[in-house]
Write a structure and sequence with these properties.
Helix content is 51%, strand content 12%. It has helices spanning 15-25, 40-50, 66-76, 92-100, 112-123, 131-141, 160-170, 175-182, 186-200, 205-215, 220-226; strands at residues 6-11, 31-37, 54-58, 81-86, 104-107. It is of the alpha/beta class and 229 residues long. It has a five-stranded parallel beta sheet, sandwiched between helices. The protein has eleven helices and five strands, in the order E-H-E-H-E-H-E-H-E-H-H-H-H-H-H-H. The chain starts with 5 loop residues before the first strand and ends with a helix.
Length: 229
């Protein structure tokens, strides 16, 4: 049986960008572009009515920006997963979108192949952000507060090994690199990460990394120094 195509809504305030994204996706039978929006408010309205699987969302738009639109979609149409787009590799709006519930981030100069792959990843419920790019973004735009804050939900439930896995994840290592650093199997690392998500009440890697920076578990300086060369 042929799988149903992934239903995609494109939201961007530039008509040429919307048309270009549509032309990239439309020839592929595994995608169906179900609508286009020129601002965040329109994107939320169309997503409520059309129920797309994935919303390819420009972050900086008029009327309602992509961050606010992502937050509204997470509440109003949770089945529509957001892939954030930005002109910039380093964009504080992207961190806001990830915190609001976006499943991934893609710079606008990415290749058509990267766009297709990211949409498929987001549709599968996984985070479509390269670990090192994710860490660079968050370490630049999320800082641990100087004043003490309540620990993230479930922090006290983490085992010492889970804290170590969480710390390495937040410094930009992928699962294979974490496994190598801790001399564990990749499947064991994956199991640790699943438990970390559950205990911290976060949905994915992006939100776990944000929580690590906000809790002070890692800092931008530590992350830069700990990445393998």
């Amino acid at each position: 049986m042929t799988e149903a195509p992934i239903r995609v809504l494109i939201a961007d305030d530039q008509p040429l960008v919307r048309r270009g994204l549509s032309l990239i996706l439309s020839p592929d039978p595994s995608f169906e572009v179900v609508g286009e929006a020129e601002n965040g408010a329109q994107a939320v309205d169309l997503a409520r009515r059309l129920r797309p699987d994935v919303v390819v969302m420009d972050i900086r738009m008029p009327v309602l920006d992509g961050v606010a639109a992502t937050a509204e979609l997470a509440a109003a149409a949770p089945g529509s997963r957001v892939l954030a787009l930005s002109t910039f590799d380093m964009d504080e709006y992207v961190v806001g979108a990830l915190r609001a519930g976006a499943y991934g981030f893609l710079p606008k100069d990415s290749s058509p192949e990267d766009l297709s792959a990211a949409i498929r990843t987001v549709h599968a419920g996984e985070a479509a952000v390269a670990p090192r790019l994710l860490t660079r973004l968050i370490s630049t735009f999320v800082t641990a507060p100087r004043d003490p804050r309540p620990a993230p939900t479930g922090l006290g439930e983490l085992t010492p090994r889970e804290v170590e896995v969480w710390r390495l994840m937040a410094t930009g290592l992928d699962n294979t690199e974490i496994a190598r650093a801790l001399e564990l199997s990749p499947s064991t690392v994956k199991n640790h990460i699943t438990r970390i998500f559950d205990k911290l009440a976060v949905r994915d890697r992006a939100q776990a990394v944000i929580a690590a920076y906000e809790s002070g578990l890692v800092t931008a300086r530590a992350a830069a120094g700990e990445r393998p060369g």
